[in-house]
Amino acid sequence: MSTFRLGLVQPITVPPPDDAENIATSVAWVESAARQGADFICFPENYPGPWRMPATFDPSNAIAEAAAKHGVYVVFGTIEPIDATQGTAYNLTCMAYPDGRPPARYRRTHPNGPWIYTGGKYWEFQYVAGDDYPVFETVYGTVGLGMCSEVYMPEVTRTLALRGAELIFMPAGLDKGRLWETWRTLLWARAIENLAVVVSTQNLLSADNRGLAIVASPEAVLYESTVAGLGIIEVGLERIRTLRDGRDANDSSQKFGAKQGVLSEQWQRPELYDSFYPHPTPSIDREAAE
Questions:
Q1: Overall pTM surpassing 0.90 (yes/no)
Q2: How confident is the model at residue 104 (pLDDT cuts 50, 70, 90)?
Q3: Which fold has domain 3-276?
Q4: Where are the domains of the chain?
Q5: What is the mean pLDDT of the chain?
């Protein structure tokens, strides 16, 4: 299909301990976005929830049922408990399907654990990093899932792109504060360097928060909003495929707003990479990010 519609939801999120209330609201957002023609709906990180261990609810069935009822893909966030006594969990970005199959799951891989999901005001669980980068086929194209500040780690989106992801969702957490400008820049940069459409949105705890809902293509930021609500934008992947399949040439800057073929052998030099970034040995300790 040549084009499809993305629905970005930037909700006023109910934080713990009442975050289970977000389930009914998220289902209502799915209905509203589908009614307005959305084919994909993107929620923020850990929306609808939960945000804490022990997990007191799982929104997956409710979101999956809503996606199937309305015939849409829904990207949402939750956690996957590992050990209730230790409070350990994976942080998930999930995608529900329009045909009702079990949602796709991505376990956040960066940074190292433990990390800042404990000791703060809202999140409270012992984060465990995942170690896989699955991509998922849809009727519109290949989808990759990431999360939040993984935008600062270009390896995440590059791996997804090299595995074929054309549409990459990176839903985020809360108001970015002084990080807002760099965060926005990096979301667009990840689209430019991977010749992909990159999508993000975030939770707002009040209307006073500054949001960051965005759809970035390699050549332009197609949509952005800082306020609560739902945005719908029509996008396509044909231009992405043209950029990926092409080769940079003398006249390319007259025709394209991003460099062509950067995932191809014209640009890639894999035979050099181990020489300037040797693989660490198991004896090297890695410190957790802060």
A1: yes
A2: very high
A3: Nitrilase/N-carbamoyl-D-aminoacid amidohydrolase (3.60.110)
A4: 3-276
A5: 94
Compute the C-alpha angle 239/260/269, nearest 5°: 140
Q: Is the model's pLDDT at 83 over the cut of 90?
A: yes
Phi, psi torsion values for 4, nearest 5 degrees = -150, 170
Q: State how far the Cα of 290 lies from the Cα of 287, in Å rounded to an integer.
A: 9
Which pLDDT value is given to residue 290? 36
Would you list the DSSP string of 131-169?
Answer: ----EEE-SS-EEEE--GGGGG-HHHHHHHHHTT-SEEE
Q: List, as one string, the DSSP characters of the chain.
A: --EEEEEEEE-BPPPTTSGGGHHHHHHHHHHHHHHTT-SEEE--TT-B---BSS-----HHHHHHHHHHHT-EEEEEEEEEEETTTTEEEEEEEEE-TT-PPPEEEE---SPSS-TTSSSSS-BSEE-------EEE-SS-EEEE--GGGGG-HHHHHHHHHTT-SEEE----S--GGGHHHHHHHHHHHHHHHTSEEEE---BSSTTS---EEEE-SS-EEEEE-SSEEEEEEEESHHHHHHHHS---TTGGGT-SS-TTTTSTTT--HHHHHHHSPPPPTTS--PPP-
